[in-house]
Amino acid sequence: MATAPTLTPNTPTQPAGERKIVVAQELGYCWGVRRALDIIEEAASPEARVAPIGDIIHNPQVVERLRGRGVEGSTSVDEARSRGFNRVAITAHGMGPHLAEQAKANNMELIDTTCPLVIKVQRLAQKLVRQGYYIVMYGDSYHPEVKGVLAWANTTKSCAAKHIEELPWNAPRGSKEPGAIVPPRKVALVSQTTKNIAELMEFSSELQRMVMPEGGEFRLCNTICEPTTERQNALKALTSQAHVILAIGGKKSSNTARLADVGNQMGVPSFHIERPEDIQQEWLDAAGDGNVGITAGASTPDDVIEQVVAYLVERGYSAPDGGIRPVDPEYVPNF
Ligand code: SF4
């Protein structure tokens, strides 16, 4: 009778000595970025160039490839016009309504690749304003998505914050302390689509405690998008199967750095790499016969992920079953 293999927490069914590559169920381009790239690549050619306003993607290889197809980023409509473009594009993060107005005023064609899940937040913010809420957007105040949503909300009764200290209030409603600045009666909280749900909930609880006393009304709208939630869940699942994690993405990609941070926080040594040459043999040696987990930031193209897989296969790891991702061309996230 065959004896059951000795199990370790990270390798539930794996025979001793078999080193596998395990790939996060969700990695690399999210649905919205992939969609935006498809739209822009289809619209542009070297003869019909397009200037996205802002960074379309934080990946040097993709930026170079797009340049060859006539896609070159610009910082503003004016700059694009002075460089001879007559077409500009909005990236997947979206922008405020001013961009369309500037393009029109300059007689330029506008290609809008805003992710529909971001448009949903822009419309929601407008609706909340009509309903009389002060809007707090949980996110990075400098991020184009956050700036764009608040620009669509078009109200002075809004702010962006990631920490409670960044809010324009310092005390709960009803406070009579000298110097107390309290929130208005109706406050709604929306989130940047890529934020972490646990952190949003923590922020929400603190904000609620400031707003709800004295008849205050607080509304939490969880606008973290479904692809982001799936990615966070996929990373958690990966940490239970891998002894070391490689998070692949451009050096400047903060969401890739964040993936590596989360892997480390969950107790699996995790490293941010841009390409296979960045992998250090000592990381693999430390994992022994354990699996290598692979994840990738939202701006990492599939071919870079495949290069990392090929590098590991050459070093004796078995390739992931079914390639680097399940392919479902019909997939559309829930709105
Ligand atoms: S909203 Fe979600 S799916 Fe859309 S671009 Fe942002 S991260 Fe990607």
Give the CA-CA distance, first to last residue.
52 Å
The Rg value, from CA coordinates, equals: 23 Å
Report the sheet-strand fraction.
5-15%
Number of strands: 11
Describe the structure.
It is a single chain. The protein is an alpha/beta fold and 335 residues long. It folds into 3 domains: 21-29 and 227-314, Cobalt-precorrin-4 Transmethylase, domain 1 (3-Layer(aba) Sandwich); 31-115, Rossmann fold, CATH 3.40.50.11270; 117-220, 3-Layer(aba) Sandwich (Cobalt-precorrin-4 Transmethylase, domain 1). It has helices at 31-43, 60-68, 77-82, 98-105, 116-130, 144-153, 197-211, 226-239, 254-265, 281-286, 302-314, and strands spanning 21-23, 51-52, 87-90, 109-112, 134-138, 158-161, 186-191, 217-220, 244-248, 270-273, 292-296. It has a 4-stranded parallel sheet, with helices on both faces. A 4-stranded parallel sheet has the order 6-5-7-8, sandwiched between helices. Helix 5 (116-130) runs parallel beside helix 6 (144-153). The termini are far apart. It binds iron/sulfur cluster. Iron/sulfur cluster (SF4) binds at residues 30-33, 92, 115, 117-118, 193-194, 225, 227-228.
Provide a brief overview of the structure.
The protein has 335 residues and is of the alpha/beta class. The protein has 11 helices and 11 strands.
